Amino acid sequence: MTSHVKDRRQELLQAAARLFREKGFAKTTVRDISRAVGLQSGSLFHHFATKEDILYGLMVDVIELNTARLQRAFDEADSAASRVLALIRAELEAIHGETRDAMTVLVFEWRQLTEGRREDVLNLRDRYEALWLRALEGLAAEGRTAVESFTLRRLLVGAISWTVNWYKPTGSMDLDTLAEQVLTLALKNPEA
Amino acid sequence: MTSHVKDRRQELLQAAARLFREKGFAKTTVRDISRAVGLQSGSLFHHFATKEDILYGLMVDVIELNTARLQRAFDEADSAASRVLALIRAELEAIHGETRDAMTVLVFEWRQLTEGRREDVLNLRDRYEALWLRALEGLAAEGRTAVESFTLRRLLVGAISWTVNWYKPTGSMDLDTLAEQVLTLALKNPEA
Amino acid sequence: MTSHVKDRRQELLQAAARLFREKGFAKTTVRDISRAVGLQSGSLFHHFATKEDILYGLMVDVIELNTARLQRAFDEADSAASRVLALIRAELEAIHGETRDAMTVLVFEWRQLTEGRREDVLNLRDRYEALWLRALEGLAAEGRTAVESFTLRRLLVGAISWTVNWYKPTGSMDLDTLAEQVLTLALKNPEA
Amino acid sequence: MTSHVKDRRQELLQAAARLFREKGFAKTTVRDISRAVGLQSGSLFHHFATKEDILYGLMVDVIELNTARLQRAFDEADSAASRVLALIRAELEAIHGETRDAMTVLVFEWRQLTEGRREDVLNLRDRYEALWLRALEGLAAEGRTAVESFTLRRLLVGAISWTVNWYKPTGSMDLDTLAEQVLTLALKNPEA
DNA sequence: GATGAATGAGCCTTCATTCAT
DNA sequence: GATGAATGAAGGCTCATTCAT
User: What residues of C are in contact with residue D29 (Cβ under 8 Å)?
Assistant: First the structure.
């Protein structure tokens, strides 16, 4: 694949992500996406066979990108608590940083995928979630969590994902502070 | 308004809520909804002027119903902690009990509303959220929360709403236990 | 089904048959058909779910109509030769009379049907062909055919169907004369 | 024109003939044809300016090829009856032998040509049909046909062309036998 | 209130054809 | 001659909404 082809693909995926986040998958037309990158409607066909393929493509890309990011955060930490904090921070960054559009879409438009695709995405998230579970169990082993790890992760992913609905990185609270607040929720006795 | 008219309206709203949750607002057709209550497609428009009105109608109803429920939970509690627990429990019940369909729709299809309607819904939630804030501040006054109340509420609403994606009331954890786990997140020192 | 609904269906089927014959199934658009009966493009949907359904519908109708006609011709004849002549005549009438459009379409656009539909049509033709075979075997029993009945029928159906490509009922040869010529082909010794 | 250029042209024509027969002209895409000979879609247009040109090209080729074949059959025969038999045999071979794909397409997709092209094809067939007419009139001169030659030819071409729909050369009847059966139809008194 | 045929705008997708490389 | 991305006009179909009955 030559690089300008990859570029066009990335360009489309990014434009689509933004539109899907702003208007929703259903209300975004193929023409909207084409126009956003300066193509005619039919030309999308060379890059993605269907509109759903675009949705799927951006979900896969963002999961893979952020799994790698999470893995890095996991590897670089030197204590159980700092590891969990790093994961929280990484996830918040995914949601509010460069991959924000795609992450939002992943959360809100996941149901638009057809059955099979839905499972594929779920499977891709497994490695991602496995990292989280290991990190939380490290904290649990130190007796610092008050909730069982699996449940804790589910509650945390909710709290973190939901920030998309209210948190503005440009506001008074920076991302590091927010990450610490979330960590506080996870810890049994935060001040200890 | 005679009562059988109200019934028909309720019937439509419930059928729509179920369909919107299962298939999403965009993929649910007016015909789907009509068929679900034994009407022909055109007849639905004697009850709701537009498809969006149905979405809006069920959101308003479910917010009002649950605000009343929340108010009751608030009033009946006799301590700050038991009050927060009661609110958590009430919100979880809204999400997993009889109003489950409408609540899920409220969370996931909120963006489908047009601008003005979106604000209306937001305003309706104000009273609801005010109750929450008072309850959390009661707990904060006792020095038992580790996170500032507004942020805490936002994180909790995320954690609670997200349960729609993973929690099954028929599974091994009952709703009371789940509510306690959520409370644990909110408390600074759960064992105290 | 009220009668004006049936009428609209018939109207559509006839308009479609004419267009399919003139332009071919593939080159006829749903909009062409709608316009021909004074409808907007989307309104076809109330009568036929897909364009193929129209094709299938008219084929089924024309087969059933002509099977009944063939049966009548079969029943009314009083000798083996006159029976075969009557069938030839009936088939020519189907091709050049009122059902001409649909018959032509049946012959030339049969391949446009999807697999399953193709079989359905074939099955419908069975009863029709069974009549033919019985009639030809009546003639064979009298020793008046020179070719085995099954093969004879296949050759005759070709000769008859092909008339669509050259015979004009308004020309110098009338349908009865043409029918006799075809019978001549089938007979071993025409003058006997 | 160098010979490998001619080869590429032939290759395309044959691939197209097969596809047109199998799927129909309308449902065969330019990409299908290109792919079948290992070209990319755009490259096909170095060989044929339009998709219709391909259809026209293969029709012209097959007519010319078979006219030559018919001429040979005509020339080699030594009696009126054997001449007609030879023509039948030659036409059946065209339909069931190597030129089968193109012949089938000639019969079934003739209407897909634009007006002018349709006439051109008709004109090409004139020489072909003239041979047939002379042969049949030879037989008529001997008093052995029961139907006037022009009509007879039209009926025979139908019977023969239609074999494409039912006759399998690999079945129990070989091509010679089939040819004889067809001749039987044409003769007034076959046993004579 | 109910019906359901009709509307008509719009959607996703297809595909013959062009053209810069 | 070959490539393949791009074009752009259609095409089949969907569906919220209207309205005469």
Answer: none
Residue C1 pLDDT: 46
Chain D positions touching C121 (Cβ under 8 A) are none
Residue B64 CA to residue B61 CA, distance in Å, equals: 5
Give nearest nucleotide to B2 (CA–C1'): E1
3 state DSSP class of D145? strand
| pLDDT tens-digit map of B88-99 | 999 999 999 999
The rounded distance, in Å, linking the Cα atoms of C11 and C13 is: 5
**What's the N-to-C CA distance of chain B in angstroms?**
54
Chain C interface test: which of D19, D111, D136, D162 (most C C-beta within 10 Å): D162
**A186 interaction partners in chain B (CB closer than 8 Å):** 185
Q: What is the pLDDT of residues C22-61, one digit of tens each?
A: 999 999 999 999 999 999 999 999 999 999 999 999 999 9
C-alpha distances out from residue A159 to A102, B102, B151, Å: 18, 21, 10
Which 8-state DSSP code applies to residue A189? S
Q: What is the pLDDT of residue A1?
A: 46
Name the closest residue on chain C to residue D146, using Cα atoms.
C184
| C1' (E17) to CA (D41) span, angstroms | 10
Mean pLDDT, range B8-32, rounded to an integer: 95
Q: Which amino acid is at B21?
A: R
SS (H, E, C) C8-21: HHHHHHHHHHHHHH
Question: In the predicted model, is pLDDT for residue C143 greater than 70?
Answer: yes
Enumerate the β-bridge partners of residue C145.
C187
What is the average per-residue pLDDT within D99-104? Answer: 96
Confidence band for C5, pLDDT divided at 50, 70 and 90:
low
Q: Which of residues 32-51 of C touch strand F (CB under 7 A)?
A: 41-45, 49-51
Residues 30-49 of B with CB under 7 A from strand E: 39-43, 45-47
Spatial separation of the C-alpha atoms in residues B70 and B99, rounded to whole Å: 13
Entry field: residues in chain D: 192
Q: Do chain B and A touch: 3 or more Cβ pairs under 8 angstroms?
A: yes
- Assign a CATH topology to domain D50-186: Tetracycline Repressor; domain 2 (1.10.357)
Query: Taking Cα atoms as reference points, which of D46, D91, D36 lies closest to residue D67?
Result: D91
Q: What is the model's pLDDT at position A87?
A: 98
Helices within chain C (DSSP H only): 3-23, 30-36, 51-76, 80-96, 100-108, 115-141, 149-162, 175-186
Whether the predicted pLDDT of B100 surpasses 70: yes
Q: Tens digits of per-residue pLDDT, C74-109? A: 999 999 999 999 999 999 999 999 999 999 999 999
| Contacts of B25 by beta carbon, 8 Å cutoff, 6+ apart | A26, B55, B105, B109, B112
Chain F nucleotides close to protein (CB under 7 A) are 1-20
pLDDT in tens, A69-124: 999 999 999 999 999 999 999 999 999 999 999 999 999 999 899 999 999 999 99
Global pTM value = 0.91
Partners of D189 on chain C (C-beta within 8 Å) are 188-191
| Chain D 39-78 residues whose Cβ is under 7 Å from strand E | 41-42, 44-45, 49-52
Helix (H) or strand (E) holding C189: none
Q: Which nucleotide is nearest to A40 (CA to C1')?
A: F7
Quick one: C51-186 is in which CATH superfamily?
A: Tetracycline Repressor, domain 2 (1.10.357.10)
- Contact at CB, A188 and B188, closer than 8 angstroms: no
